[in-house]
Amino acid sequence: MGRNTAAAEVTRRWRVMAVIAAVAAVAVGASVGPAGAVGALGVGSDFNGDGYADLAISIPFETLGSGQEGGAVQVLYGSSTGLIAVAGHLWSQNYAGIADTAEHGDWFGKAVTTGDFDGDGFTDLAIGVPAEDFVAGNTNDGVVHVLYGSTVGLTPTGSQIWSQDNAGIPG
Question: pTM of the predicted model, to two decimals?
Answer without folding.
Answer: 0.73
